[in-house]
Design a protein that fits this description.
The chain is α/β, with parallel strands linked by helices. Helix content is about 20%, strand content about 30%.
């Protein structure tokens, strides 16, 4: 992908409230790192590799990779830590003594780390970095540092992976699955905030990715991310976004599709709302059901715990007509954000948006276009999987297929330009009983013309 799209990845992470990204097991685009510098997104890069460690010749090449990485990326202020071990590899005293020496010789200003997956690993770096997949929904969210390191003294400590393959969740999974996925991520963050021996936590992972039959789901995709491969959000990422200060952005994301038959027993017993508001008012059928405050009993470390709404089972009688619902978020006594759900939600429209409406002619450039099916309240229809047809005319083309299905109510595609200037016209048509067409115009401009 070109510079614009590489930079967009950094913007997406920052938009959702994250402040650190681990560049896991492969070199990152210089454009991505440039953008991290510009927006203040910290980076932990590491040498290529995953578990496997070869002979001395292989290790010599790995040392060359490390030297190249530091020389190439040294001047990026966003980089806070150099990864000098092969991810999740076994201990190798001589090899890792050497990689640490290389890093310290090339850069005396930054510490080193090395990602592990085993307890009591030999500690040779400046920061003990560990993948902690202990939390399974019942066990503690994080193991203590002393148990992980096997050391009597405390050392600088960062958790470099959690969740991920322990609870793979598709963007179109059931409400209960996505709800638990979101809570597991927040439990780990909460535990890290309570434990002063943990300097930070980095979840596995941001985006779903293609893989092979030995690791992925039945579709050969690792659904480990808090976004899908198209950088479209799952519910879990709203927990991170809700940790922003509400003066920057008020967040109110009820984890529900508001369907009475979605959960076991046709009952919505409780609802979790990812929010940074002081409290939430919840209305059923136009009437105030209750005022709810952040769940500090279950999340003692978070600055902005989710709100937990209980007691809705009063409305589970079979003959009861399922009502509309309304959520209102308040900060400093003022209503700052609302979210409304209809009891009868049908396809109303599709929203089509481009990340950028101007591209640079004469160079490879591209932008992402998202397509979302929404109801009358502008809520995404998570179980609508209609097909859309994409037509592009002018100096541009679609990267990939021109007919695609929505997955979990939305999809994205990328449009690239050619060497020529002019208007790229994009037409997206929903091929459904209700045919809807939306059009976009993207300008491919010369460098001097960029707005």
């Amino acid at each position: 992908m070109p510079a614009r799209v590489q930079k967009k990845d950094a913007d997406i992470l920052k938009e959702y409230g994250l402040n650190l990204v681990r560049g896991s097991h492969y070199p990152q685009s210089r454009h991505f790192l440039d953008r991290c510098d510009e927006i203040g997104l910290m980076v932990y890069p590491e040498i290529p590799g995953w578990q496997h460690m070869g002979d001395e010749d292989w290790q010599e090449v790995s040392c060359e990779h490390l030297t190249s990485m530091i020389n190439h990326d040294y001047n990026h202020p966003s980089i806070m830590l150099w990864g000098v071990r092969i991810n999740e590899s076994l201990d190798n005293h001589d090899f890792y003594i050497k990689t640490n020496a290389i890093a310290h010789a090339l850069d005396k200003s930054r510490p080193t780390g090395g990602v592990r997956s085993r307890e009591n690993s030999e500690f040779l770096e400046d920061v003990f970095t560990m993948n902690d997949f202990h939390h399974d929904g019942t066990r503690s969210a994080l193991r203590g540092q002393h148990r992980i390191t096997g050391l009597a003294e405390k050392v600088p400590y960062v958790v470099t992976e959690y969740c991920g393959h322990m609870y793979p969740t598709k963007k179109y999974a059931t409400e209960e699955r996505q709800n638990e996925h979101a809570l597991r991520h927040l439990r780990v963050v909460d535990a890290s905030r309570i434990d002063n021996d943990v300097s930070g936590v980095v979840g596995w992972c941001a985006f779903d990715y293609n893989t092979h039959q030995d690791f992925g789901s039945g579709d050969k995709i690792c659904h480990h991310g808090v976004f899908d491969m198209y950088r479209l959000p799952k519910w879990a990422v709203y927990g991170y976004r809700s940790q922003k200060d509400p003066s920057i952005e008020p967040v109110l994301e009820p984890l529900t599709v508001w369907g009475k038959g979605e959960k076991d027993g046709a009952s919505i017993e409780t609802l979790n709302v990812m929010t940074n508001c002081d409290y939430v008012e919840f209305y059923l059928g136009g009437k105030l059901f209750g005022k709810y405050f952040p769940n500090k009993d279950d999340f003692k470390g978070l600055k902005y715990p989710p709100v937990k709404i209980t007691g809705i089972s009063t409305y589970e009688d079979w003959g009861f007509e399922w009502p509309d619902s309304l959520f209102k978020g308040f900060v400093n006594g003022k209503e700052v954000i609302t979210k409304k759900f209809s009891a009868s939600c049908f396809l109303q429209d599709i929203e089509v948006q481009a990340d950028d409406l101007e591209l640079t002619a004469g160079d490879f450039d591209a932008t992402r276009i998202t397509v979302k099916a929404v109801d009358k309240n502008k809520n995404k229809l998570m179980f609508f999987n209609g097909v859309v047809n994409i037509k592009v005319s002018g100096p541009g083309s679609v990267i990939g297929d021109e007919t695609v299905a929505l997955m979990g109510g939305d999809i994205a595609f990328w449009v690239q330009n050619t060497q020529e200037k002019g208007d790229i016209n994009v037409e997206v048509t929903l091929l459904n009983n209700k045919v809807i067409t939306k059009k976009l115009r993207i300008k491919s401009l010369g460098l001097g013309e960029m707005g």
